Automatic annotation (TrEMBL):
Record-annotated membrane-spanning stretches: 9-28, 76-104, 116-133, 140-157, 163-195, 207-227, 364-383, 395-416, 422-442, 451-470, 476-495, 507-525
Protein name listed in UniProt: Glycosyl transferase
GO MF annotations in UniProt: pentosyltransferase activity
Residue segments, region Disordered: 261-344, 531-621, 711-757
InterPro entries cross-referenced by the UniProt entry: LipidA_mod_glycosyltrf_83 (IPR050297), RgtA/B/C-like (IPR038731), YkcA/B-like_C (IPR056785)
Extent of the signal sequence: none
Subcellular location: Cell membrane
Chain ranges of the Putative mannosyltransferase YkcA/B-like C-terminal domain: 627-713
The entry's keywords: Cell membrane, Glycosyltransferase, Membrane, Transferase, Transmembrane, Transmembrane helix
Main localization, broad class: membrane
Length: 757
């Protein structure tokens, strides 16, 4: 390896970065986007007001349920390069490559090039890491921010300068404005490392430096939240996902403690939970292909419609991830009878072995056994030398990063699979560190510790084979035997290679690379699947895990009670479910979702669509064209083109036109916005006229009151005025069959019009 790493240019690093870019960018234009965020970015481009507050709609009615930084970046990219799927995904994919490079820079000074190269390679091909950087979810930007903060922290310890420490903590504060409390998961490692690794700095000065940096952290973290909360509510959008229209409440509650406990702390009254159907059947998800096939066999003439509309039947839940409630049955009590310790999004049963259960093991746990052997090796080096070096400090930093997260994800009840990507940098770093440490023992051939590398390779290989076996219903069992054979053969070679130093080195490198074969295979499956854009998961189970737009899958396939008149979008291929990655009938046309947009128009909410306001070549996929035509013919420039009961129902219209759609109740319909009084005033002022109400209703008692007001004070529009009953009831209808759509959504929808008092 040395001949490849001499000189200023590390050829192997370049290869690894190109490999990372290849994984991140492969077919990215067709990967699809999280429509919840895509709609918000498009709305943000219409005015600085919407940009700053991260408004979901161009009229500035309600925000998304996340802080602004990652979406600001997406909006800036869209403003410069044009609004389309690839541009929205570009910053996240680039962030993944840069994170790999930063890990190399961080590890190399402490453990050398070999460790740095291995660490960067492990991160580059970590399945859930690759899955998340290929979406416009905010996690990849968060990881890049935290990796940059880590690099600055290393500089602070190395140079013993306060400025670097302040920069490091300031970047963590920026991370808070990417995904709130999730950014603070690394703080124990940051405090620990600086406090113990800066031996030459006096204790008092050390504490003062940490206090100053913590103050900076707090100021930057709360800057946007305070700015929003101090703005009069009448002059800004409602804060989506909160109960009290407060960013701080959202951060500490729904995006904070609720993630651990699973209790509802935001997004409206918990009473709305029972109105939102949930499913949590792994078997149903894994057999989504069979469900689709059976549908097509039952009625070949309408197979296209049934396939598209039934994709949501395998959704793990309709529960929200910002903008609403956790699923019905707090504490993870599921409709399938799962225990209270069950995770809400098919994340397994809480407990010390949760990360090794089939629901999560294939996401991030492939190399965890080798991390254990690495820790043993580091302990042995300390016991043998009785010297606590900077290498030990550095290793403990990554353990302090990893261990609290392992504990959290083992007991928390409210998170998605892709949150596990937070563990990827620490695991990757410890693999590189561990390999160097164990190889040094191995080549000395002294004592039991020389067996740590061979045994670590064997045990990890067998565990990886177990992961494949856990998913044998989705992948060929041959891959399990590949893992077993590789582990056994390389173990035997490591044991037998006693003569030549070169042979030892070659076999050792081959053995650590062999541990990446199955993770790379898992990653390859991930990047070739469609429908993984809203709540990404890794490997063949990328159809499981519940979904929505801010962390949950919304879109046409989700079981979210989307009104029968339209379907929620997913990226732009709005007739495709976002949770059915194994469905062979899914097409991958999401690049059309936002293509040909150029810069989003500077129109306000009530402006009719421009010629380029339609996506995918002017098609309104996923929206009942007859209903849309009726609404356009009766639109008189109101501020809101239509009001719907949740954000998913607005995706298609707002992605394809410049109209503003009011998402009453936010993402899942459970936010207390608007109130009855507010809606009545808007209707009287001529800001809103049409309301589309589904039979399923809205979540939350407050929003039920809104629905009741609409039904009592508005006139029902006969469906005959905007739909052809004969075509709707035809067994050979096309993909806009409203009867099928309505049945899949838990009840028919009714259009209401407000005509004044």
């Amino acid at each position: 390896m040395k001949k490849w790493t001499k000189g200023r240019v590390d050829i192997l690093l370049i290869i690894i970065l190109l490999f990372s870019a290849g994984l991140n960018f492969y077919n990215l234009q067709n990967a699809g986007t999280n429509s919840y965020y895509s709609v918000a970015v498009k709305s943000m481009l219409t005015s600085f007001h919407n940009f700053f507050f991260v408004s979901f709609d161009p009229a500035g009615f309600i925000t998304v349920d996340k802080p602004p930084v990652a979406l600001w970046i997406q909006a800036i990219f869209a403003y410069i390069f044009g609004f389309n799927d690839f541009v929205l995904l570009l910053p996240e994919a680039l962030a993944g490559v840069v994170s790999v490079f930063l890990l190399y820079l961080i590890v190399k000074p402490k453990f050398g090039r070999n460790s740095a190269l291995i660490s960067s390679l492990v991160l580059a091909c970590s399945p859930i890491f690759v899955a998340v950087v290929r979406t416009n979810n905010v996690d990849s930007i968060l990881l890049l921010t935290l990796m940059t903060a880590t690099w600055a922290l290393m500089k602070a310890v190395e140079k013993q300068k306060l400025g670097w420490l302040i920069l490091s903590f300031a970047l963590v504060g920026v991370g808070f404005n990417v995904k709130m409390m999730q950014a603070f998961m690394v703080l124990p490692a940051f405090f620990f490392y600086y406090f113990f690794a800066t031996r030459e700095i006096k204790m008092v000065k050390k504490i003062i430096n940490l206090v100053i940096s913590t103050v900076v952290l707090a100021v930057i973290s709360l800057s946007w939240a305070v700015a929003v909360d101090l703005t009069p509510e009448s002059e800004r959008p409602y804060m989506g996902g909160s109960e009290t229209n407060s960013v701080l409440e959202l951060a500490l509650g729904y995006n904070g403690l609720s993630r651990l406990t699973g209790n509802n702390s935001g997004g409206g009254s918990s009473s709305g939970q029972q109105e939102m159907p949930t499913t949590n059947s792994t078997e149903q998800t894994q057999n989504s292909d069979q469900t689709t096939n059976s549908n097509s066999n039952d009625n070949s003439e309408s197979s296209s419609t049934n396939t598209q509309n039934n994709e949501g039947t395998s959704s793990s839940s309709s529960m929200q991830d910002g903008g609403g409630n956790p699923p019905s049955g707090q504490g993870g009590m599921m409709n399938d009878g799962s225990s209270q310790n069950s995770g809400m999004f098919n994340t397994g049963d809480a407990g010390p072995l949760r990360l090794f259960q089939s629901e999560l093991s294939g996401q991030i746990s492939w190399l965890l056994p080798f991390v254990l052997f690495a820790v043993i090796g580091l302990v042995v080096t300390f016991l043998k030398t009785r010297r606590y070096t900077m290498q030990h400090h550095f290793s403990l930093f990554w353990l302090a990063w990893l261990m609290p997260m392992m504990v959290f994800f083992s007991i928390a009840l409210f998170y998605h699979h892709y949150y596990l990507s937070m563990m990827a940098p620490a695991i990757a770093a410890l693999i590189g560190i561990g390999f160097t440490t164990l190889f040094n023992f191995y080549k000395e051939e002294k004592g039991w510790e020389s067996w740590l590398l061979p045994v670590g390779i064997l045990v990890t290989s067998l565990f990886e084979a177990l992961i494949v076996y856990q998913n044998s219903s989705s992948v060929s069992i041959i891959w399990m035997w590949v893992g077993i054979i590789l582990g056994v053969v390389l173990f035997m070679l490591l044991v037998a290679a006693k003569s030549s130093e070169t042979i030892k080195h070659t076999i050792a490198i081959a053995s650590i690379l062999s541990l990446l074969v199955l993770p790379i295979y898992w990653t390859a499956i991930t990047i070739t699947k469609t429908g993984n854009e809203s709540t990404p998961t890794a490997g063949p189970t990328s159809a499981m895990g519940g979904g929505r737009g801010g962390g949950m899958q919304g879109g046409p396939g989700s079981d979210m009670g989307v009104p029968g008149g339209m379907q929620g979008g997913s990226g732009g291929n709005m007739t495709r479910g976002t949770d059915n990655a194994d469905d062979s009938n899914n097409s991958s046309n999401s690049s059309n979702s936002t293509n040909n947009q150029g810069n989003a128009s500077q129109m306000q909410g009530g402006t009719p669509p421009s010629d380029n306001g339609k996506m995918g070549g002017g098609e309104m996929d996923g929206v009942d064209t007859e209903l849309m035509q009726y609404l356009e013919e009766n639109y008189n420039g109101e501020k809101f083109f239509l009001a719907v009961q949740r954000a998913q129902s607005a995706y298609s219209i707002m992605l394809n036109t410049d109209y503003a759609v009011m998402a009453m109740g936010g993402f899942g319909g459970s936010d207390p916005a608007p109130t009855v009084e507010e809606l009545e005033k808007m209707a009287d002022d001529g800001e809103i006229k049409y309301f589309l109400i589904s039979g399923q209703g809205m979540g939350g008692s407050g929003n039920s009151d809104v629905t009741s007001w609409i039904q009592e004070n508005c006139e029902e529009v006969p469906s005959s005025e905007y739909s052809d009953d004969s075509s709707d009831n035809s067994s050979s209808s096309d993909n806009t069959d409203n009867t099928d759509i309505q049945n899949q959504r838990g009840g028919s929808s009714t259009l209401y019009v407000y005509k004044g008092k």
